[in-house]
Design goal:
A 6-stranded mixed β-sheet has the order 1-4-3-5-2-6. The protein contains 6 helices and 6 strands, in the order βαβαββααβαβα. Helices cover about 30% and strands about 15% of the residues. It is globular and about 40 Å long. It has one domain. The protein has about 220 residues and is an alpha/beta fold.
Length: about 220
């Protein structure tokens, strides 16, 4: 099930008083302002998939580690605000958060799709170096080649730890068809956009190739 940005904000606002209220018309936080500097230059140039637990830039720990049937988007938002309160954003940094709730997958649109990811390439590289994280081969390849700036991608976050969770065909279908494909069409991205999907620091239990199958036009 796809949950729109406005519906996601409403859900979070009604259940979490610390987060920005939907009625606020203007965000007073630099990274969230709908300015030219914060919007995609033309259109997204790639897709980056991470999980919330092993996230390279904004890990949400110690919970949730395993995606359960509970509504974890509220806990993730709360933890993000606690852990990264000095960062210039009130919104979650990812465009979509994927989680399993009561035997059903949900795609929460947590950041306007015309707003860039709130880190520049230099900031991302510095954060990775400062945290001294061990990187898998795909992540190393992304930072070495830098096929596109990290801010110029659609970002998808999977709830939990992808080294522990098990993913079914339905998981990949939901991510491909409901988080990625609509915006491939909306932005009129090229047919080969599937080659520009990078799973950063994602566990081996998650197979990105299955996502690619569901974003073919």
């Amino acid at each position: 099930m796809f949950v729109s940005y406005q519906e996601t904000l409403k859900l979070i606002s009604e259940n979490s008083p610390f987060i920005i209220n939907e009625s606020n018309k203007r965000l007073s936080v630099t990274k969230d302002e709908s300015s030219v500097a914060n919007r995609f230059t033309t259109k997204p140039r790639g897709i980056i998939i991470q999980d919330t637990y092993n996230n390279l830039f904004f890990p949400i720990q110690p919970r949730p580690q395993i995606d359960t049937n509970k509504l974890d988007i509220l806990e993730i938002t709360k933890r993000f605000r606690e852990l990264y309160k000095t960062f210039e954003t009130l919104l979650l940094p990812w465009h979509f958060v994927v989680e399993f709730v009561e035997n059903r997958y949900y795609i929460f649109n947590t950041r306007p799709v015309d707003l860039k990811f709130p880190l520049s390439m230099n900031e991302a590289i510095k954060m990775v170096k400062d945290k001294r994280r061990d990187l898998d081969d795909i992540t190393k390849q992304y930072f070495k080649r830098q096929p596109f700036p990290i801010s110029e991608a659609i970002h998808v976050a999977i709830v939990g730890d992808t080294t522990l969770d098990v993913y079914t065909k339905k998981t990949y279908e939901i991510i491909g068809k409901f988080a990625i494909l609509p915006f491939v069409r909306y932005f009129k991205l090229p047919e080969g956009i599937g080659q520009s999907i990078y799973p950063l620091n994602v566990g081996k239990k998650f197979n990105t190739n299955y996502v690619v199958k569901f974003i073919r036009k």
